[in-house]
Design a protein that fits this description.
heterodimer, A: 312 residues, globular, B: mainly alpha
Amino acid sequence: MTIWLIITTVVCFGICSLGLQKGVEKITKILMTALLALIIILAVKSLTLPNAGEGLKFYLMPDFYRMKEKGIWETVYAAMSQAFFTLSIGIGSLAIFGSYLGKKRRLLGESINIAVLDTVVSLIAGLIIFPACFSFSVDPGQGPGLIFVTLPNIFNSMVGGRIWGSLFFIFMTFAAYSTVIAVFENIIAFGMDLWGWSRKKASFINTILIIVLSIPCVLGFNVLSWIQPLGEGTGILDLEDFIISYNLLPLGSLVYLLFCVSRYGWGFDNYLKEMNTGEGMKMPRMLRGYLTWVLPIIILVVLVQGYINLFG
Amino acid sequence: MEKREKFASRLGFILISAGCSIGLGDVWRFPYITGQYGGGIFVLIYLVFIFLLGLPIITMELAVGRASQKSIATSFNVLEKKGQK
């Protein structure tokens, strides 16, 4: 595991150190296009399996009875936290790309593109999983193991399953790499902005830092498995996941939000002016009430409910 | 200080930003949570929150980033000073 950690870190920082256009932009473009093509092929394959219709029905037909079974509020909360998690908002990873962006287009349209693309990938991932689940009688509600335990079995029982399986896990790696590259780019820019390092220097220093700082997480699965910070059976990864998912994402989002709408920060007028610089879809001023009063409360609810779920 | 780099193309920007948010959250977490919370109805609520909750925050991150031309390390300071002048 340590070796894979080092390979991933070095490769991704290597890409970042080549620079924005030559490294990050070029590689991500290739990765993303390959990834989109791959998931569409897999979805088509999955949809043509026997009994795929049952899976589609489960996946796309809203069933209020099932929601009551699970609890209405629990379902709503799960949807809200998934929205945070999937977009990884609030930790400045989109802000960094905003800072490399020209002033030609208005930001609302660009934001919609990002949200839609992310959602489309999620939805296609579902189109791959659920028809296959029902076709091979796998319980779709089994939890985090769903893709790791089930899919290899499913692939095994398919003609040419090894190829489909490898393709899928390559796709998973792509998805993870593109996120890692974005986060590293952010860390590198941090060093460049704050201490005026060159891109090469920032990349080098951070490669070493990240490898050293990631070691406890890896050791948490073996040597340090006696550390169980969040109760029986949890590891160091769970603690780090808790810090990010339950705290940094909502809190960071709240910081960005309040900074944009409050006059103690940047102020709504400045935010609106920046949003509407350029051409494209315009951000309407009438959303101010919603953004200033309703949205912060929703985020606070997500934050508090997360704590209740974990410690309550 | 050297000039800040820019994206070569609009497509590059969108793919990169989407690529940053597309990750294990989509491929691994989304299907299993959907499975646990009853399928279609969860998908529907999730779509609503992407636009109610996710989209505004995306616009804010991009706005702060673009206006300040800085990473999260210094962007808030840069903008606050501008606002108070």
